[in-house]
Write a structure and sequence with these properties.
Elements (H helix, E strand, L loop, with lengths): L1 E5 L10 E7 L3 E2 L1 H9 L3 H7 L10 E4 L10 E7 L6 H13 L8 E4 L11 H16 L17 E5 L5 H26 L7 H14 L3 E6 L1 H7 L2 H7 L7 E8 L8 E5 L1 E5 L19 H16 L4 E11 L11 E3 L5 E3 L7 H12 L6 E6 L3 H7 L4 E5 L2 H14 L3 E3 L4 H4 L9 E2 L7 H10 L6 E6 L5 E2 L5 E2 L4 H16 L1
The structure holds ligand BES, manganese (II) ion and zinc ion (ZN).
The site of manganese (II) ion (MN) has 5 residues, from loops.
Length: 498
């Protein structure tokens, strides 16, 4: 997809479709008014006829437009004629792009950034046009014989006034980087488990390092992990024929001595549950259990493309969780890299076994903060549904910064408590701790488990079990939480410099 910012008057632009806003009560946005004047009252006629009430998210496509420059006009309802909420702006954008998935529409000019959005500037507005449009036209057709996609949109120009050009341009660069990061994350998520193995993920990371020289990529093999004592991680991999990989991405574009931000992503390329086998319905969706890892790759791509002046380390422990003669068995006791022993009461609680050794590994970077993301618990879906990711951590300031980044990125988080009372649920009669804490508060006890390996640094955990992919008819990866993490990194690049 090709994106650009244009400042020329509307009647000088050429496109297959121009997108303009209309408010409730038949009030036209400035660009709708301009087109109305160029086309002898065309838009007012349509609105006055009652074909569009101007309610947010409504659309009408004007299929025949006089002249040769503009082939079509899409009217998009914006709601009341006052500054839009960020959510309504996004809703209008989504309605617009979804109604333009037509075979003959390749080039768009979008005038919607002119609408005022509460507390948001042109940078944010142009960035979100790109993120929303790019997200909406994504389709995973790689493994279909017929690779035709619903949308043929190839070029999008965002109209901006001269005075806002600089902000709109920087929003464009951010939007392109984040959209590309999300695309990578979604593609890796949507790939099936028989293609997207730990080895494949490692290759993708190496390829990313080839494309962005600022990303140094290293892969630890099982022998390396054994030498480090990663007994928890390796115990999960023992039940799989695919070798585990520990992917390390190193991005050093910040101050030489600045402590790094460490991002850890669960890269479980298929979670059958192990000996505690999952039930059959919906098990295919456990190919998405590597979305935390894919998020680390997508976010590091975005950071590298934006050339953020930060030091960032990405860690992706990657394995499968399969039933096998050599798999973990309920009751088995493992020794983690930290030396703590773990009784495996349920082999399906494998994500925390990967993450605990990764957290211990992160200590060697003397991190400023560590943020892990994982499709960790079905319980998080029960608690928060598919709207917000779960947030837990040992540092209020970090949690606040992440939650705020989520609001701006439209990729929200909701914090759950990590009180010590919950730690008791992890008691084991035979080891330092059990890997599960019973059926109550599953998301919290999973985070409690992780917290025991995160005592040496500021740490936050994102449970993305409900947000990393959609189920049902529109099954597919969402690319979340790439927007939220990219926003956090952008904020950090800004404040660390100040
Ligand atoms: N990857 C799953 C969590 C999951 C399940 C995410 C369904 C999204 C949808 C994780 O490895 C897992 O199996 N967790 C168990 C933990 C339990 C055994 C304590 C779960 O949530 O059932
Ligand atoms: Mn599991
Ligand atoms: Zn899992």
């Amino acid at each position: 997809m090709d994106y650009s910012i244009v400042t020329a008057p509307l009647d000088e632009l050429h496109c297959d479709c121009m997108i303009v806003g209309v408010y409730q009560d038949r009030q036209l946005s400035p660009s709708a008014m301009a087109l109305n004047n160029s086309f002898n009252g065309l838009i007012k006629n349509i609105v006055n006829r009652g074909d569009l009430s101007g309610k947010n998210g409504e659309t009408v496509l004007i299929n025949a437009v006089p002249g040769n420059n503009i082939q079509r006009i899409l009217l998009v309802g914006l709601g009341e004629n006052k500054p839009l909420s960020a959510k309504n702006y996004k809703k209008a954008l989504l309605a617009a792009v979804n109604s333009l998935k037509k075979p003959k529409i390749e080039s768009l000019v979008c005038c919607l950034a002119e609408s005022e959005v509460i507390d948001r500037d042109w940078q944010w507005k142009s960035r979100h046009i790109i993120e929303t449009f790019n997200d909406a036209v994504y389709q995973f057709t790689e493994l279909k014989s017929d690779k035709e996609t619903e949308s043929n949109i190839q070029r999008i120009s965002i109209v901006a006034p001269e005075a806002e050009l600089a902000l709109a341009q920087s929003g464009l660069l951010q939007g392109k980087a984040i959209a590309e990061g999300m695309e990578l994350t979604k593609r890796l998520g949507d790939l099936p488990g028989n293609t997207c193995t730990p080895t494949y993920l490692a290759e993708q990371a190496l390829a990313l390092g080839q494309k962005y020289p600022s990303l140094a990529v290293k892969i630890l093999e099982e022998a390396d992990m054994a030498a480090l004592g990663m007994g928890a991680l390796l115990s999960v991999s023992r039940g799989s024929r695919q070798p585990a990989k520990f992917i390390i991405l190193d991005y050093q574009c910040g101050e030489k001595n600045a402590k790094p931000i460490v991002l850890i992503g669960k890269g479980l390329t298929f979670d059958a549950g192990g000996i505690s086998l999952k039930q059959a319905p919906g098990m295919d969706e456990m190919k998405y259990d590597m979305c935390g890892g894919a998020t680390v790759l997508g976010t590091m791509l975005a950071a590298a493309q934006m050339q953020l002046k930060l030091n960032i380390i990405g860690l992706i422990p990657s394995s499968e969780n399969m039933p096998d003669g050599d798999a973990n068995k309920p009751g088995d006791i493992l020794t983690s890299m930290a030396g703590k022993t773990i009784e495996v009461l349920n082999t399906d609680a494998e994500g925390r076994l990967l993450l605990c050794d990764s957290l211990t590994y992160a200590e060697r970077y003397n991190p400023d903060v560590v943020i892990d993301m994982a499709t960790l618990t079905g319980a998080c879906l029960v608690a928060l549904g598919r709207v917000a990711s779960g947030l837990l951590g040992n540092d209020d300031a970090l949690c606040d910064e992440l939650a705020e980044a989520g609001e701006i990125a439209n990729d929200s988080l909701w914090r759950l408590p990590l009180w010590e009372e919950y730690q008791e649920q992890l008691k084991s009669n035979f080891a330092d701790m059990a890997n599960v804490g019973g059926k109550d508060a599953g998301t919290i006890t999973a985070a409690c488990f992780l917290s025991r390996f995160a005592e040496k640094f500021r740490w936050a955990h994102l449970d993305i079990a409900g947000t990393a992919w959609r189920t049902g008819q529109n099954k597919g990866a969402t690319g979340r939480p790439v927007p939220l993490l990219s926003q956090y990194l952008l904020n950090r690049a800004h404040t660390d410099k100040a």
